[in-house]
Structure to design on (230 residues):
């Protein structure tokens, strides 16, 4: 079974600075997807960024980028120019590319990010 | 286009009571899932459905029942509520097996006393 681990329960950063959230995962599969979800106080789960395992290039979405290290099974999220609206719980998630596992997301424990003005 | 809706938003139950959490989607997505979110544990899959009439168990199915008679609706039934079922419940949909993104509802906070 796949597992996802986020070893930082809480992180804080000064507004406008850069912060990196860590995520490691364990799988025996070679093809899969990785995601970062943001959960603000409203509770809504919002997809921030995704990475396909077969792609070597790291995904980027505006101020959000990932460092995907497949051999190390590491998938960190970098937030540049942090804004107050980035304050939220962030979840790393894994999804198999196999049909029988394609609808199941495996989540990490979450990292609560605080932005200091 | 409402997306994924869940009702109720909040619910308090007594131990032993039963209830149904409702989930509806208007995006014609094939896949629907139920997750529960507990502090320090992330979200865990309870049950999922790959289409009308087809359901299967996820990681933590005990104490819950589901059915999928239509594409739009995927209710989650608590048969006899227990304090261990106190959690936030999320419904999620996915267009098809090749789709990347799951769309989440706003969640239901359930407290069992």
């Amino acid at each position: 079974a796949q597992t996802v681990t986020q070893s930082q329960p809480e992180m804080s950063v000064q507004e406008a600075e850069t912060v990196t959230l860590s995520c490691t995962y364990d799988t025996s599969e070679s093809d899969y997807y990785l995601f970062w979800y943001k959960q603000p106080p409203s509770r809504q789960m919002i997809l921030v960024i995704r990475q396909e395992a077969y792609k070597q290039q790291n995904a980027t979405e505006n101020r959000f980028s990932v460092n995907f290290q497949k051999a190390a099974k590491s998938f960190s999220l970098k937030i540049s120019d942090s804004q107050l609206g980035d304050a939220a719980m962030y979840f790393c998630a894994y999804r198999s590319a196999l049909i029988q596992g394609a609808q199941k997301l495996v989540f990490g424990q979450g990292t609560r990010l605080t932005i200091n003005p | 286009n409402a997306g994924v809706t869940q009702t109720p938003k909040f619910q308090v139950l007594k131990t032993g009571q039963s209830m149904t959490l409702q989930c509806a989607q208007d995006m014609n997505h094939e896949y629907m899932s139920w997750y529960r979110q507990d502090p320090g544990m992330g979200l865990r899959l309870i049950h999922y459905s790959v289409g009308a009439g087809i359901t299967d168990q996820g990681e933590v199915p005990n104490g819950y029942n589901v059915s999928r008679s239509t594409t739009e609706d995927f209710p989650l039934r608590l048969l006899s509520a227990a304090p261990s079922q106190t959690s936030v419940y999320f419904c999620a949909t996915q267009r098809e097996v090749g789709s990347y993104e799951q769309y989440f509802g706003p969640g239901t906070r359930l407290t069992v006393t």
User: Anything to note?
Assistant: The radius of gyration of chain A is 14 Å. The mean pLDDT of chain A is 94.
